[in-house]
């Protein structure tokens, strides 16, 4: 009886392992690193004297270059329509996305989100803010948010590029929100690196955008677009060097 049972269990385990291997073979990761190929521009301090409750020193975030040339806040996202979505993203499909007013500064600077998510706009400051956004083809909004409160906002329309968000009370404040219909979006970190996980294997078209340049035309890219055949596992674009002339706008 023991031997008979053992013969049944072993093939089942083998089948299970084969299924797991097959599932993992359907998905890949795209990563890379954006580098400013020149002398890093000096950080530009912002004048926040208008409101004495804005105490921290702030800098312009249009072009943030690290000490090793890494370029932050480059947005990379799948442009292919009807892209297959990994089921691991299901839990986040209706989780709130958050944009905070903190130290008279929007945090984070860029918010990728799905149109199924609510954007929670928080005010962690001791002063009031407004959040002015006019998404293309969608309902504009501009709520005043008293200190220590928050509001929720939904988007009905997918956007092709990040949409600007401003605070008219504190005119130096600026952020971006990117509502999409799939979760395949990454924003490069302080070192210029980015990673998009669980992409379906096969050829996909991607879009790259940066605040100062707009569509980011790295070598070989047109209007910031590039195609990549995603294979199972890691797909590394390597270091993407960007000429300073791309940002002279």
Task: Fill in the keyword field for this structure.
249 residues; mainly beta; Immunoglobulin-like; 2 domains; four-stranded mixed beta sheet
CATH superfamily of the largest domain: Immunoglobulins
How many individual β-strands?
Answer: 18
Q: Whole-number radius of gyration?
A: 22 Å
Order of helices and strands: HEEEEEEEEEEEEEEEEEE
The best one-word shape is globular
Helix/strand structural class: mainly beta
Count of runs of 4 or more consecutive helical residues: 1
Question: At the third CATH level, what is the topology name of the largest domain?
Answer: Immunoglobulin-like
Number of domains: 2
What helical percentage do the residues reach? under 10%
Largest sheet: 5 strands, antiparallel
Mean pLDDT: 91
Low-confidence blocks of residues? 1-21
CATH architecture of the largest domain: Sandwich
Q: What is the CATH class of the largest domain?
A: Mainly Beta
Distance between the termini: 78 Å
Strand % is: 35-45%
């Amino acid at each position: 009886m023991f031997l008979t049972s053992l013969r049944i269990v072993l093939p089942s385990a083998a089948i299970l392992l084969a299924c797991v291997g097959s599932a993992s073979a359907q998905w890949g990761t795209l990563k890379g690193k954006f580098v400013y190929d020149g002398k890093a521009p000096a950080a530009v301090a912002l004048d926040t004297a208008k409101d004495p409750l804005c105490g921290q020193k702030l800098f312009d975030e249009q072009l943030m270059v690290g000490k090793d040339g890494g370029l932050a806040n480059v947005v990379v996202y799948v442009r292919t329509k009807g892209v297959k979505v990994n089921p691991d993203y299901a839990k986040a499909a209706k989780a709130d996305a958050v944009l905070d007013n903190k130290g008279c500064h929007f945090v984070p600077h860029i918010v990728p989100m799905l149109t199924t998510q609510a954007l929670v706009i928080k005010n962690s400051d001791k002063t009031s803010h407004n959040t002015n956004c006019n998404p293309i083809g969608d309902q504009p909004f501009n709520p005043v948010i008293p200190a220590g409160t928050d509001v929720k906002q939904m988007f009905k329309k997918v956007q092709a590029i990040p949409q600007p968000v401003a605070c008219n009370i504190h005119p130096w404040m600026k952020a971006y929100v990117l509502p999409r219909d799939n979760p395949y979006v990454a924003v490069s970190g302080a070192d210029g690196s980015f990673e998009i996980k669980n992409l379906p294997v096969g050829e996909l078209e991607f879009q790259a955008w940066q605040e100062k340049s707009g569509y980011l035309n790295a070598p070989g890219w047109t209007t910031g677009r590039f195609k990549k055949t995603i294979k199972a596992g890691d797909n590394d674009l390597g270091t993407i060097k960007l000429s300073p002339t791309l940002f002279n706008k």
